[in-house]
Amino acid sequence: MRIGDLAELAGVTQRTIRYYESIGLLAPGQREGHGHHYYTEETLLRLRKIDQLKRLGLSLEEIGEVIDLYFTDPSGIQPKQKVLVILRKHLDEAERKMDELQQFRSELQTHIERFEKFLNEAQYR
Amino acid sequence: MRIGDLAELAGVTQRTIRYYESIGLLAPGQREGHGHHYYTEETLLRLRKIDQLKRLGLSLEEIGEVIDLYFTDPSGIQPKQKVLVILRKHLDEAERKMDELQQFRSELQTHIERFEKFLNEAQYR
DNA sequence: TACAAATATAACGTTAACGTCATGTTTAGA
DNA sequence: TCTAAACATGACGTTAACGTTATATTTGTA
Question: Is-above-0.85 flag for pTM?
Answer without folding.
Answer: no
